[in-house]
Amino acid sequence: MKEAMMKAFTASEAIAWVTSKAPVFRDEIIKELKAFHDVAGKIIVYTGDTELTDLNVGKDVVIVDGDLAVAGLIQDGVKVDTSLLIVLGNVACQNFITLSSIFITGHLNVNNIVLGDSLGDCALKVGGDLSAKTMIEGGHWFEIAGRATVEYLFHSHGGVRDKNGILKPNLADSDLMEDFTENPASYPGFSYVEMIDDIQEEGTYDLPKTIKFIRQGGEIVYK
């Protein structure tokens, strides 16, 4: 397993580093770095392509200058209200949980589940394409500059947008599935499969249960 050199940067050094790279989302990334200037924690930079078993992003800002390959789970917002992950390259992992802000300048390839939920406060921004078996948007913004290829998609609030517009959801919690079944005329052109009970609470999508399901290795989210 290849782990690139890891350095600790100041906010000023990190901003200068990102500016010199001139990546997609550069101005937005710099704005986020400035917002984290006075936040407790370090700015950790991996220089070069990096391979990790898992990646948990908490109080320390994490920047990867290269491609990032994670064998298991990438999760942000760990034990903090806000966090920041920046990857100047492509990302590949098994599962992906984002509760805060993430920028990926290249492609994002997730073998299983992408979950995003920040009460609509934060966004995942991808400069290339995104692929995943399942995507659950539980109140998060997704901006994909390329094409998003997803087999199962749940929309809660923010929606998932790629270069072709807003993606059409086809995964429903029990409440939505009941309404869809009873009032199909209200959903012209839509077709849904129902979520498993393991990721719902009283008929609606539930964040803590979904995180637990993913972290325990769950894969199939539909009945």
Automatic annotation (TrEMBL):
This is Uncharacterized protein. It comes from Chryseolinea soli.
